[in-house]
Specification:
By secondary structure, the chain is mainly alpha-helical. It folds into two domains: 2-98 and 646-666, no CATH class; 104-303 and 369-596, MFS general substrate transporter like domains (Growth Hormone, Chain: A, Up-down Bundle). It is 64% helix and 2% strand. It has helices at 27-31, 82-92, 101-104, 108-130, 136-143, 149-174, 176-195, 200-228, 231-262, 267-270, 272-286, 296-302, 305-324, 334-356, 371-400, 406-412, 414-434, 438-455, 464-478, 484-490, 498-530, 532-539, 541-547, 556-560, 564-596, 615-632; strands at residues 2-5, 57-60, 644-645, 651-652. The chain has a two-stranded antiparallel ribbon with strand order 1-2. A two-stranded antiparallel ribbon has the order 3-4. Strand 3 and strand 4 (651-652) form a beta hairpin. Helix 6 packs antiparallel against helix 13 (305-324) and helix 7 (176-195) runs antiparallel to helix 11 (272-286). The two termini are 22 Å apart. It holds the Pfam family MFS_1. This is Efflux pump dotC. Residues 662-672 have a biased composition (Basic and acidic residues). It is a multi-pass membrane protein. It is found in: Vacuole membrane.
Length: 672
């Protein structure tokens, strides 16, 4: 076992020759006698709680066969070791094996209140992803705007994806609590705007504001859970959040149908106001996490504005190009081509800025150095791509093919919702008990691919055994992969990058869901366009034009108004177009299976240390990163820098303790 206290200003001593007191006695032997005989696995990283921001006593079992003690301290700390001794003495009375300090300071009631408020916010964010799916035709009719059909859903998803990366870094600067309260507040304002909108333009603006806030809610919820619980325990709590997300996404069409048919579609947005208000109040009083008290001016100066604007611009341009292509403009039009090409160019420039310009990058590219992380983010995108398509297009199947009402189409999707939520919760508990996250990932993608493959076998009439069984199979595949990939990602990154990695995870998911709705809609519209000759011959030019092109999905209500012989022809056209779309989603689910085999498997730790936020922490963890880069180029590290091997051949700079491979929870940031 190795132990060291590190700082940015200097280093003294090594593992073979620990520093001594003025009488020549070893600090390791005299002041830490109990540490020499403890089992390495029972020792956790402990923060110096005496206000010493220059050093942290850190223990690592990178080499479980070694009892060497290393103390690296700033020069001013060596003559007077009282602070180090006091810090070690303070940790002796703590329970090293059972409860970590952050959890010991919270009662069960506090934990319950925190989870209720976080889940309430997540419920609303997920609900607004799907609640409008069955209400969109009615909203389009009210505002007499068929062009706004896709934008009602897409505006929320586009803003959600574009804003997601920035929320994590903002929480690193100002702390988790102020930022998550801000995200919920922005979502509240957007809901109010959407609810009182008087035209389609105002509604789309409200949905955009909702999306900006919603993009932060899910990301910040996962970041808060990462700060509150150990790697092993957070799986269960993330499973609860995933259950809420899945249930909300599934119940969205039901609630949307109830509001649309029984009251008014505006309640799809009004419902958010009291619930989000209560969530903000509970979070304000119950969420106790480190508050750096960063000033507004200092915080704004530290934000990677260029990177944030570039990622927003690139995301919007690419998604808008896909949204407009083939619907508003031809695919070969200058507008569509320029949007997509310039979006890709800006994305490339974003990578350059994050690598060479940004002081505190929105998305640290070091996250992508691990092949496992790339695989996790890829399969996360595949999962988001496929998951949202079922929530959006199964109701279209029920309405356009089976002739169901908006309310009943939401009811018919409940088997998918229930099993998806249940599997998500079960996987969270399983990960907590077993510490294994890879089997649920692989099994989930296999079942998801099978489920969508079976959707191709659905009939053009109501074959309920098939409808229910196929939904259950798909839900069993979708549920496990809300949570498990995020746990896999967090095991391979250091604590300093947890927030950025989590926000990147949320960004890839939201980007994929946005692209899924857009691309799925394009495939469906093209499929309906292929049915145009048949519709023209059987139904006449007026009805054929109404049911094809950009009006295809928004005209689903017109199908039920047709007389019986003509209705069957229109329903068959919808059925053929949807089946083509299902085949497309099977391919993405299959890609997820392939990527899942590239995800690394690591042991999850029960030990946990509260992560501190703020500019001081960001600067302290930035210095070792710069030293690593200089060392890799053959240059000398900065003062206080130490090149250190962690037992796996990976070098780490000063202030970052070594950790055994496969247990990122035992990686500690030095100067907190």
């Amino acid at each position: 076992m190795a132990m060291r206290s590190s700082s940015r200003s200097g280093s003294v001593g090594d593992a073979k020759s620990p520093p001594t007191t003025s009488s020549g006695e070893s600090l390791a032997s005299n002041n830490f006698p109990s540490l020499q005989n403890q089992d390495p696995a029972a020792n956790a990283t402990r923060h110096d709680e005496l206000g010493n921001t220059e050093g942290t006593v850190t223990m690592s079992n990178a080499d479980s066969n070694s009892n060497a003690v290393e103390i690296t301290a700033s020069p001013q700390e060596v003559p007077d070791s009282a602070a180090v001794v006091a810090a070690a003495a303070a940790t002796q009375g703590q329970n090293d094996n059972t409860v970590d300090p952050p959890e010991a300071r919270r009662s069960k009631l506090q934990t319950t209140l925190i989870m209720i408020s976080l889940c309430s916010a997540v419920f609303l964010s997920a609900l607004d992803t799907t609640i409008v799916t069955v209400a969109v035709p009615t909203i389009s009719d009210d505002f007499n705007s068929t062009a706004g059909y896709t934008w009602i859903g897409s505006a929320y998803l586009l803003a959600n994806a574009a804003a997601a990366p920035s929320w994590g870094k903002l929480s690193d600067i100002w702390g988790r609590k102020p930022v998550i309260l801000s995200a919920v507040g922005v979502f509240w304002i957007g809901s109010l705007l959407a609810g009182v909108s008087v035209n389609m333009a105002m509604l789309i603006v409200g949905r955009t504001v909702q999306g900006i806030g919603g993009g932060g809610i899910m990301t910040l919820c996962n970041i808060c859970i990462s700060d509150l619980f150990s790697m092993r325990k957070r799986g269960m709590y993330m499973g609860i959040v995933s259950l809420v997300w899945a249930v909300a996404g599934g119940f969205g069409p039901v609630l949307g149908g109830v509001f649309t048919t029984k009251t008014t579609w505006r309640w799809c947005f009004y419902i958010n106001l009291p619930i989000s208000g209560c969530a903000m109040a509970i979070l304000a009083f119950s969420l106790k996490l480190h508050n750096p008290r960063t000033g507004v001016r200092e915080g704004l100066a530290a934000v990677d504005w260029l990177g944030a604007l570039m990622v927003v611009g690139a995301t919007l341009m690419v998604l808008l190009g896909l949204e407009l292509g083939g619907v508003t403009y031809p695919w070969n039009s200058p507008t569509v081509i320029c949007l997509i090409v310039f979006g890709v160019v800006v994305a490339c420039l974003f990578l350059v800025v994050e690598t060479y310009v940004a002081k505190f990058p929105v998305i640290p590219l070091r996250i992508f150095k691990q092949p496992s992380n790339i695989a996790v983010l890829g399969l996360n995108a595949c999962h988001g791509f496929v998951f949202i398509s079922a929530s959006y297009y199964l109701p279209l199947y029920f309405q356009g093919v089976l002739g169901a009402s908006p309310l009943m189409s939401g009811v018919y999707i409940l088997p998918y919702t229930f099993i998806m939520g249940a599997c998500s919760a079960v996987v969270g508990v399983t990960i907590k008990k077993t510490g294994k996250y890879l089997p649920p990932i692989i099994a989930g993608f296999v079942m998801m691919t099978l489920g969508y493959g079976l959707f191709i076998d659905l009939d053009s009439y109501a074959n309920w055994p098939k409808v229910i069984l196929y939904q259950l199979i798909l839900g069993m595949g979708v549920g496990p992969n809300f949570l498990a990939p995020l746990v896999a990602l967090q095991t391979t990154v250091q604590p300093r990058d947890i927030a950025s990695a989590t926000s990147t995870y949320g960004f890839t998911r939201q980007l994929a869901t946005s692209m899924s709705v857009v691309i799925g809609g394009v495939i469906f519209q093209n499929g309906m366009q292929k049915q145009y000759p048949t519709l023209l011959r059987e139904l006449g030019p007026d009805v054929a034009s109404l049911l094809t092109g950009s009006n295809a999905a928004s005209s689903v209500n017109a199908v039920t108004a047709l007389p019986e012989p003509q209705r069957a022809i229109a329903q068959m056209a919808y059925f053929k177009a949807l089946r083509t779309m299902f085949i497309f989603y099977v391919a993405f689910a299959g890609l997820g299976i392939v990527l899942s085999f590239f995800v690394g498997s690591r042991k999850l730790s029960n030990q946990h240390v509260e992560h501190k936020t703020g500019l001081k922490t960001l600067q302290q963890v930035r210095t070792p990163i710069e030293d690593e880069e200089k060392t890799s180029l053959g240059a000398e590290p900065a003062a206080g820098g130490v090149r250190e091997e962690n037992g796996t051949g990976e070098s780490r700079g000063a202030g970052v303790a070594a950790a055994p491979r496969g247990d990122s929870e035992k990686i500690s940031e030095g100067a907190k």
